[in-house]
Amino acid sequence: TLPNELTRDGDFRSAAGAFGTTLIASRTMFGAIPAAPGAAIAPVPFMTRANALSDPTLSVTPTGALLAFESEVPNPGSSGTTYDFYVTRLDVDGTPAAGGDVRVDRSGGGRTEVAWRGENWVIAWHVGSDVKTASVSLQGGIDPPGGRTIATVAVENFVAHLTISSMGNQVAVAWTTHGLGVPSNTFVQRLDAVGHSIDATPFTFTGSGMLGVAGLGTSALLVYRSANANYAVSVPQAPMGLGSPAILTAGFIPDGVVGMDGRWLAIEWISKRPVRFQAFDSLLAPSPVVALPYNATDRLVSTGAFALGHDDANFVVGIVPTNEA
Q: In the chain, what are the helix, strand and coil shares in percent, each to the nearest 5?
């Protein structure tokens, strides 16, 4: 099993103030809620499909959740298969709600990202060179069907990473592009409450990788990598302009995730073997770097294989080594 990252940006508060997360095992989706920090997690199967499932993203609200995932489908015009994006609403106990799986779009090679907006969800994904968004209602309706394109990257590039975060009555969506022989850049664009672009064009930052974007009340913070330094950029609500990039940490971070709990920014990343964790206060002053314990026989993997979230009192981190089933 490979884990989805934990729900982010304060989307989820269970009765115990803990986290919810999802795991998949081929055609079955599991849910898990730790009872307390450090407690063992007992995944419970809650959804089984006839075709293989992958790349789940979960956004939980006090009245239910939205689960976005990919499902294997026949590839039209060939004997092989491909993956399509779907969303499914869940009741508060994790039971799939009436209406079943709703197809969003064909797969673009990366999972659908989800942000809760208080009255609806905004989802973002990419297909080919197009970055797309849509709104999902509490009843599961998608507006517009198939999504809207908010940006198209150059044909020689491809979207390598995409993430989304709520910030007040707006949403920030960010992505990176990579390509052979062309510059790698990080982009961020602000959306309204239903996923329409507010900015005429995305803001662009030169950098080879993005750690993420995290909401903080009515603003967000974009964290990205450029050369051997990691930068933070304040993303306020439109029409205010973005802040200037500030060096957050020096040194190369090969892959990481970022989260914010309303008071602290946190980064989790892999440096050689240990997974490391560091928090920053509202003025971006850093705490000491913490190396998380691990099994010395494991070889930790990077992209998509570790997680960062928070509850009311703690950050929650998770990793998966490659030798686990």
A: 0, 55, 45
